[in-house]
Amino acid sequence: MAAAAVPLYKRALRQPENVRLALKMVQEQGVGKTWRRIQGMLQAGQPTGYSAAGVVVATGEEVTGFSVGDRVACAGAGVANHAEFIDVPVNLAVAVPQDVTLDQACTVTLGAIALQGVRRTAPTLGETVVVIGLGILGQLTVQLLQANGCRVIGLDPEDSRLALARQQTGVLGLDPQNDPIVSQVAWHTDGLGADAVIITAAAPDHDIVRLAMQACRKKGRVVLVGDVGLNLRREDFYKKELDFLISSSYGPGRYDPYYEEGGQDYPLPYVRWTENRNMAAYLALLAEGRIDLSVLQPEVHNISEADVAYRRIAEATPKPLLALLRYPDGADARARSVRLPRAGGSPRGGIRTALIGAGAFAQGMHLPNLVRLRDRFELRWIISRQGAQAKAVARQYEVPAAGTEFDEVLRDPEVDLVIITTRHHLHAGMTLAALQAGKHVFVEKPLALQAAELDAIEAFYGADPAGKPLLMTGYNRRFSPPIRQVRDWLSQRSGPMILQYRMNAGYLPPEHWVHGEEGGGRNRGEACHIYDLFVHLTGSRPVTVQAQSLHCRGAQVRSDDNFSVTASFADGSMASLLYTSLGPQEVAKERLEIFMDGKLIELDDYKSVVLRGARAKPWRSNLAQKGQFEELQALANALRDGGDWPISLTEQLDVARLALSVETQIHQRPSEAC
Asked: The pTM is what?
């Protein structure tokens, strides 16, 4: 709530990296589209909550260790949201011990964060540790240190929080606004200073870290758990040779998608305390009575009173340290969608459409284009993995239904078209399911990541797709205005062509989802756009394809980020793609050269097209025009007027198979690599 109340310009000053992204977007897409995208994301908001406890109502096919009816505690922003039903990966859920109530267990995330901060401090029996900030994290940290046999000094400017901390045996509470902290700490440590300081405060003040370092003894350590100003000064820690450590949330595994989303655990002998094991350890301490939440006087509110709970946290004096939201028992586990009133009243009469996957790309590109084409498309559903996000997007675009269950869309007879914009590994399965349900499908590229998936889609259509639902893969570049100009110039060619395409793709870190199983890599996920362009411009089928990639011993250069592809086509043309992540950002991302009939066509980043060797007016635009709007126009025309598909089934299958062939070849490591 506090973040939502901060003006946009102040949030921008706090996050300069987002300002840089916005400026780059303005350069590529223009001020209007960038502003609409930012406003849309702000209006959609973020799911609230990151710590929960409840009862298992269903488990995934590969889940072990959990059964329906088990009590579990769950963690994770975007996962353990405030909602009746949440979908949680196995490493972000732990069983609740018998002696722990769900009211207690729902604090598991806070407890794991505090516990990880203590682990980073590595306190030993009898040490004196200062805790700066006695909010809920600070109070839990105090109790954990007490359980570890440490002497604790707590600092906080609020009397009520100091009083709570002082209820713990042997805890000294000090007010940094009135007490001489450094001298007081020295007095209570025989002049040595604190062995360690844990910062659990949340304030922009840079002096908090200075105070922590000044209160430490020589060779002590300072551990940052909270969010404070970090304008460090050398003199504060150089002479004492202090260690300054950061505690990253709940522990090892945090922010690792393979651990959190993929369910890959770290071996216990090598990583003793993961975030999941920290969660379990915290619940065990609750069960043993080593952590006592009752002294923190938690307030419990029914979910219908959530506004009261938030208002108490924001406005009450003193503010409650802990507010719990309780949901009614016996909720219907099938109620995974909501129906929202539409401001416009009656349906608009367009193609009845469901959008599956309401991520950044869908919100920034497809949804604004669908609004522009509201006379042709009528949005009926928004489906997203996060129910709160689906509901927020549905409200923003006045869509009458929102939920998390794809099957509900398939069962809805009032849906004609399904637009799939999920992560790549879901595309083929969702596409086939929608086609089998009688829905037309627009699926963002890639159509499939595996040959078997592609074979299943082809088998659905059999020898003749006539009379079956339309399928369109989102190869938007072929519909762009500059490519239409290129096609017009090529219509008069008398012989084969040579096409040379350069994709200066830019670097993505190894942990980016595109590189993982959900993305399938940049060849299948992005380069397929260019293979489709080759098929479109030649107007013929690929005959052969050869691919090579860089293979280096170091991990800094990926073979699936840096490769070249050469394909021949039935009309005698030859096309090549150079795809690389090694180039500089200031160089245009995409460039195409076409040689034919003594002429040269040059396409520069979808902002200009020039024909050389003949008199022709060049095509130019201040912004890149890549055809996302035009492809939806073509889709609407095909569905409403009938006729040919915007992209034939043969072309879609050919492009997907070409990408799969390239994928196999670029991962074949040569006998000698750099």
From this structure: 0.81
The rounded distance, in Å, linking the Cα atoms of 236 and 531 is 58
Residue with tokens 């920034």: 364
At 365 the three-state DSSP class reads helix
Length of the chain: 674
CB of 499 closer than 8 Å to CB of 575: yes
Whole-angstrom Cα distance, residue 576 to residue 534?
A: 9
CA distance readout (Å), 364 to 33, 40, 48, 222, 370: 8, 8, 22, 42, 11
Q: Can you tell me the distance from the alpha carbon of 503 to that of 590, in angstroms, rounded to the nearest whole number? A: 5
Contacts with 458 (C-beta within 8 Å, 6 or more apart), sequence order:
649, 653
Q: How confident is the model at residue 674 (pLDDT cuts 50, 70, 90)?
A: low
Averaged confidence pLDDT in the chain? 90
d(CA 90, CA 79): 11
Q: CA-based angle 648:651:652, to the nearest 5?
A: 90
- Give me the sign of the Cα torsion angle 327, 332, 333, 338: negative
Instruction: Give the ranges where 6-55 is alpha helix by DSSP (H).
Output: 8-14, 16-29, 31-44
Sign of CA dihedral 527, 531, 532, 538: positive
Q: Would you state the structure tokens that stand for residue 514, as one six-digit string?
A: 């595109």
> Considering only CA atoms, which of 519, 522, 58, 100 is closest in space to residue 282?
100
| Residue 132 CB partners (closer than 8 Å, separation 6+) | 138, 155, 156, 176, 197, 198, 199, 200, 201, 208, 211, 212
pLDDT band at 5 (very low <50, low <70, confident <90, very high): very low
Residue-wise pLDDT tens digits, 604-625: 999 999 999 999 999 999 999 9
Residue 520: count other Cβ atoms within 10 Å of its Cβ: 24
Do the Cβ atoms of 630 and 481 come closer than 8 Å? yes
Burial class (CB within 10 angstroms; exposed 0-12, middle 13-18, buried 19+) of 26: middle
Quick check: 648 and 634 in contact, CB under 8 A? Answer: no
The helix or strand, by DSSP H or E, that contains position 264, with its residue range, turns out to be none
Radius of gyration for the alpha carbons in the chain, expressed in angstroms and rounded:
29
3-class SS of residue 126: coil
57-113 tens-digit pLDDT = 999 888 989 999 999 999 998 888 888 888 899 999 999 999 999 999 999 999 999
C-alpha dist (Å) from residue 596 to 382, 477, 538, 544, 599: 46, 21, 11, 20, 5
Q: Which residues are paired to 130 by β-bridges?
A: 153, 197
Q: What angle do CA 316, 319, 321 make, to 5 degrees?
A: 150
DSSP line for 65-79: S--TT-EEEEE-TTT
CB atoms near residue 2 (< 10 Å): 9
Nearest-angstrom CA–CA distance, 391 and 385:
11
Contact 182, 215 (CB under 8 A): yes
Report whether 245 contacts 209 (CB < 8 A).
Answer: no
Yes or no: say if 149 and 125 are a contact pair by the CB < 8 Å rule.
yes
ω into residue 400 within 30 of 0, thus cis?
no
Q: Does residue 14 carry a pLDDT above 70? A: no
Query: What's the CA gap between 57 and 63, in Å, rounded?
Result: 13
The two beta strands, 417-420 and 351-356, are parallel
Q: b/e map of 618-635 (b: 16 or more CB within 10 Å)?
A: ebeeeebbbbbbbbbbbb
